[in-house]
Design goal:
Length: 251
């Protein structure tokens, strides 16, 4: 399992290779293009995300050479591309899904030819390999953990959702799932809904544009939509194309 400092040592070790790669002399136009492409490649510990980087396969290892530049990571490091075929049935048609940490990036092209990235919550425990495995996400309401920590579970998860999820409908769906999961752990559903209304009132900037759309007046009452999901009167269509709003990122 290694020592406690192992993640920090490994992180510094890889960061040194990344520094050496990014500080290589760039005298030609192609070399500058390579550095720009890798500036959008990010790593967190052992997770590597490369967006729109067509040079990644040519310069992934330090013994590789391209355009007069050496590669990125040591040859002893095995970096294998991951595939998630089970995600393709859960996203809109004509899009591509890519998980990174707890974020699911959905990449698509608009009819006008613009590229878009929409983000949703991603939990690797939904992968088929974890089917049948009993996993607990939160501590039980009857645990000996202090009450303040248990009360703050919902608030912390709420802010996590509003930062990760860009689609308001997906946010409502995930919030309902959160309340349902905490209810199963013994927490009061009525209190959780009150907490949800309280934090939504305290963060009026959350989904500000979506909550004020005239063509979708139902989004003005997110708590009401969460109640509908909990009562199973509303269902989330993960294959629907998200609304075109200014919060969508370009990539």
């Amino acid at each position: 399992m290694g020592i406690s400092a192992a993640p920090f040592i490994a992180n510094l070790f890889l960061a040194w290779y990344e520094y050496r790669f990014m500080t290589q002399p760039t005298t030609t136009a192609r070399q500058k293009e390579v550095v720009r492409a890798f500036s959008l490649t990010k790593r967190y510990l052992d997770d590597l995300l490369a967006l729109n980087n067509r040079f990644i396969s040519r310069l992934l290892s330090v013994d590789q050479r391209y355009a007069g530049m050496h590669g990125l990571y040591p040859t002893s490091l095995q970096v294998e591309p991951q595939s998630h075929p089970h995600l393709q049935t859960q996203i809109p048609a004509g899009t591509t899904a890519m998980p990174f940490l707890d974020i699911l990036l959905i990449l698509r092209t608009t009819p006008s030819g613009d590229a878009r990235i929409t983000t949703r919550l991603y939990d690797k425990r939904v992968q088929p390999v974890f089917d049948g495995v009993r996993l607990s996400r939160f501590i039980g309401a009857d645990s000996n953990v202090n009450e303040a920590s248990k009360r703050n579970i919902f608030t912390g998860q709420f802010h996590r959702l509003r930062r990760v999820v860009m689609e308001v409908e997906n946010f409502v769906f995930e919030s309902a799932n959160l309340i349902a999961a905490l209810t199963q752990m013994g927490y009061s559903r009525a209190r959780l809904i009150r907490d949800c209304a309280r934090v939504l009132e305290a963060t009026p900037q959350a989904y500000y544009i979506q909550r004020r759309q005239r063509q979708h007046p139902e989004y003005a009452d997110l708590v009401g939509l969460i109640r509908q999901y909990l009562a199973r009167r509303r269902h989330f269509d993960s294959t629907a194309v998200p609304l075109e709003l200014t919060q969508t990122h370009h990539w």
